[in-house]
Amino acid sequence: MAQAAPDTRLQVSADTPFVPADDNFHQPPSDDPYWTETTWWSFNVPERKLGCWLHAAFNTNRGTVTWRVYVWDPSGADPDRALYFRTAADVPIADPAPDLRDITIPGGGFRVKMLRPMRDYRIEFDDAAADFAVHLNFSGVHDPRRYTPGEPPFMEHAHYDQLGHVTGRLTLSEEQVDIDCYSIRDRSWSPRGAPAASKPAAKSGDAQSRVRHPGGPRWREIERERGRGRIQYIFGHAGPDAGFLAFVRVADGDADGWSPLNHGWLLRDGRFERLDKAASRMRNYRDPQTGWSAHMDVHLTDLTGRTMNAEGFSVSHITERGAGSTALMRWEFDGQLGWGEDQDIWHPKHFARMRAALQALR
């Protein structure tokens, strides 16, 4: 693509800053059809227990994009009962040189316009037939933060997270809902979504051999099986000065249910510091009916020794495949209330096994 930013995944460290060119598409390093660029935006309305995603994944070597927009609250978690749910898969990109700094995603998708490099953006989406619209301004409160390259969960991804002040308006069937929150956007670029390599048939006891630290409740043991594609991503912020973000290394969890945290940050008094991965952990409690996250204890320590204990409760969920869910989370930490998400990602068959153990009667 013309004027695409170079791919520098193999030349960076966790301290390498992102640059304005990273707002745009990156030159694929090969013709891999699974080379993917993503853009994701989120917001919440705590008074309504409402969350929203706008997400797009561009397969630039194939010239297609898959996008989705959805809004959820406690009225229903599946697509048919969500307040709004719309997706479009593999839409052709007609523009020979699209620019992610100023783009309207084809097939009726949302619009992204960069206002200030790496900081300020305008996001818009309109669906007149459904009387639905989103008009957002995202103002980053810090520079995008890089996770450590070559570590789980995205071994090959260039990826960043950024906290922002999100303001604007949501239209829901003629109702106008004001938006004023702090939430996250992220970007990544790498090969993504290729079919898994074939593996030898599982032997008897193979599931048990996948567990690094056997023991504990059966459902917890199933949850921490390695090689199942489990990802869990949590964040919560009370404003521009306090909060946290972390990836959870579920497969490295112990028999008591504590899972270490990987890449992420602790934010206090407006100062971001990376997490101490050896000292940060999360314990999750699941709803026995749905199997989804219901309650969490999170203990965080950053690399300077600062600590934070956060307790979170899920208040609403959205699920795309009937397995894991994305939850809007209400957090308490440092005497403050914060809001954010738990993105609890499973392979459906793995999730079904865990939930069956969670619901077992004998």
Which secondary structure elements does this structure contain, and how are they paired or packed?
Elements: E1 35-45, E2 50-59, E3 64-72, E4 84-92, E5 102-104, E6 111-116, E7 120-127, E8 132-140, E9 145-146, E10 158-172, E11 175-191, H1 206-209, H2 218-223, E12 231-237, E13 243-248, E14 258-268, E15 271-274, E16 281-286, E17 293-301, E18 307-318, E19 326-333, E20 336-345, H3 348-358
Antiparallel strand pairs: 1-2, 1-11, 2-3, 3-4, 5-6, 6-7, 7-8, 8-10, 9-10, 10-11, 12-13, 12-20, 13-14, 14-15, 14-16, 16-17, 17-18, 18-19, 19-20
What is the terminal-to-terminal distance? 59 Å
Percent of residues in beta strands: over 45%
What is the average of the pLDDT values? 92
Named CATH topology of the largest domain: AttH-like fold
Largest sheet entry:
11 strands, antiparallel
Low-confidence segments, ≥5 residues, pLDDT <50? none
* CATH homolog superfamily of the largest domain: AttH-like domain
- Which architecture of the largest domain does the CATH hierarchy give at level 2? Beta Barrel
CATH C-level class of the largest domain: Mainly Beta
Total domains: 2
> How would you spell out the order of helices and strands?
EEEEEEEEEEEHHEEEEEEEEEH
Estimated radius of gyration? 20 Å
Overall shape: it is: globular
Number of helices: 3
Proportion of residues in helical segments: under 10%
Q: Given the helix and strand composition, which structural class is it? A: mainly beta
Number of strands: 20
